[in-house]
C-alpha cells in the first residue's frame, strides 16, 4: 500500500482553480483528521508521475492523467462534499489492495 504524503492539485491554465481545490482539500483533510500530508497546486504541464503520491484534478483533465496510477477526478472542483467522498473512497480502495 502506498502511503499518501504528497497530494498535488492540478489545473490547465494556472488561473486559480487548482488553488481553490488545494484549499478545499486542506479543509477536507482536517475534517477527516488526516495529518502529515503536504498539499500543493500546479499546472498540468509542471507535473509528472512522481510529483505526488496522489493527484486531484477536474474531469476536464482526465485524458492528461490516464497514465497516472493514483488520482481523484472531480466532476465539480469547488464541491468539498465530492472531494471528501472521493478522498474517503481512494483511501478505502488503497487499504483494500
Structural class: alpha/beta
How would the global form be characterised? globular
Strand content: 15-25%
Radius of gyration: 12 Å
**Helix/strand order:** EHEEEH
Low-confidence stretches: none
Tell me the number of strands.
4
Number of helices: 2
The neighbouring-strand order within the major sheet is 2-1-3-4
Helix content: 25-40%
State the distance separating the first and last CA atoms. Answer: 7 Å
Biggest β-sheet: count, sense, barrel? 4 strands, parallel
Instruction: Estimate the mean pLDDT confidence.
Output: 91
Task: Tell me what the structure shows.
By secondary structure, the chain is α/β, with parallel strands linked by helices. It contains 2 helices and 4 strands; from the N terminus they run βαβββα. 32% of the residues lie in helices and 22% in strands. A 4-stranded parallel sheet has the order 2-1-3-4, with helices on one face. The radius of gyration is 12 Å and the shape is globular.
Key traits:
single chain, 97 residues, alpha/beta, four-stranded parallel β-sheet, 2 helices, globular
Task: Offer a concise description of the structure.
The chain is 32% helix and 22% strand. With 97 residues, it is of the alpha/beta class.
Which helices and strands appear, and what pairs or packs with what?
Blueprint: E1 6-11, H1 17-31, E2 38-43, E3 54-58, E4 71-74, H2 80-95
Parallel strand pairs: 1-2, 1-3, 3-4
Amino acid at each position: 500500500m502506498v502511503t499518501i504524503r504528497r497530494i498535488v492539485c492540478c489545473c490547465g491554465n494556472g488561473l486559480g482553480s487548482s488553488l481553490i481545490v488545494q484549499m478545499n482539500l486542506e479543509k477536507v483533510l482536517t475534517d477527516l483528521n488526516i495529518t502529515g500530508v503536504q498539499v500543493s497546486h500546479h499546472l498540468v504541464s509542471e507535473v509528472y508521475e512522481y510529483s505526488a503520491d496522489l493527484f486531484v484534478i477536474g474531469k476536464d483533465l482526465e485524458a492528461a492523467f490516464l497514465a497516472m496510477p493514483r488520482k481523484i477526478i472531480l466532476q465539480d472542483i469547488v464541491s468539498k462534499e465530492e472531494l471528501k467522498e472521493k478522498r474517503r473512497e481512494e483511501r478505502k480502495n488503497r487499504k483494500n489492495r
